[in-house]
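Researcher: Please predict.
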Amino acid sequence: GKNNIPAVGFAYYVDEFMSLFPESPAASPQNIVICVDTSTVSIGVEWAKQLRQQNFIVQILLELHLPEFVKILLHADEDGNLRLADKVYGIEKINLLTDELNRRLA
């Protein structure tokens, strides 16, 4: 057109704009993922509820959709347990699990 119209592109203030939003859980330093498959989804959901009541940030992801970086990876099994590395925790041992999670997140 004939008229000059001053303009600034959207990306001009993108850093300031993005700082208005909280970090996504994937970028959180307290990144706890419960890995499930189709047979353990309900177990993962129950564990996530319990851990969230203890103020942990928890994601539930299918084994096929795990991100590259996960700070703490828990695996749900068909017996209702969570495995963290070589330790297995039943719901009755949630206090031991939360102690270990706090230690790893410190």
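Model: The two ends are 60 Å apart (CA to CA).
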